[in-house]
Amino acid sequence: MAFFLLMWLLSATDDEERKALAEYFTPTLVQLQDNSAGADGMFGGDSIISDEDYRSRAMQVGERSLSIPKQSSSTNRFGDGDIKRQDQTQFEMIRRRIEQRLKENESLRELYKNIRFTETREGLRIELIDEADFSMFALATDELLPRARQLLAEVADAIKPAPNPLMIRGHTDALPFSSGRTMNNWMLSTARAEATRKELHRNGIDSDSFFKIEGVADREPYTPDDIYDPRNRRISITLGWRSELNLN
């Protein structure tokens, strides 16, 4: 019935009458289109004729435009930014605590050069890096050496107050294992990450604090130009952004 009524109206009216009928049934839509992009409507906002001029940022769909709200971009990914600023402040405090602990500990003072702090998209990454004169683990095993245990104890004491999720990643160099061995660099890097997690937990880090444990073998070298460099053997302990992971 609606279809036949529509056909009758189209045949029985001229252009002016059809335009009047359309405006009668959609007065609110016309008013909103003429007067605002939410400015004077129920949602507030800027007018489409303001200096901001949404139309210049619109995607064209036929003769109409789809406006992009000012707050829809990824620049607001952390909400008002308070949580990220809190994390950054906490990260800086942790970095200073670790540095201070190493300077005050005579037996570990020389290992200050083996720690790197980097703010990444994941969070604050603390890297404990091997060198020719220092190794975290016994050769080709996941057995932590005494000074590495001391170093992890200092790191654990420094990060214990932080509510951020912890991610631990093990890295190896590219030296292959001898034929016939069941171990490989994937297994070794994962085992070393797990050994690090256990040591941090033994030093007071709660089990619920750990978010991810993984090994990446030699796929993320510290020195890409020399895949056999001992510095490629390292442990990364990352304190994740709480906002990035939707955690409080």
From TrEMBL:
It is found in: Cell membrane. CDD domains: OmpA_C-like. The keyword DNA-binding does not apply. PROSITE patterns: OMPA_2. It comes from the Bacteria. It is a single-pass membrane protein. The keyword Membrane applies. Keywords: Cell membrane, Cell projection, Cilium, Flagellum, Membrane, Transmembrane, Transmembrane helix. InterPro entries: Bact_OuterMem_StrucFunc (IPR050330), MotB-like_N_dom (IPR025713), OmpA-like (IPR006665), OmpA-like_sf (IPR036737). Residues 124-248 form the OmpA-like domain. Coiled coil: none annotated. Pfam families: MotB_plug (PF13677), OmpA (PF00691). Belongs to the MotB family. This is Flagellar motor protein MotB. It comes from Parasphingorhabdus litoris. The lineage of its organism: Bacteria, Pseudomonadati, Pseudomonadota, Alphaproteobacteria, Sphingomonadales.
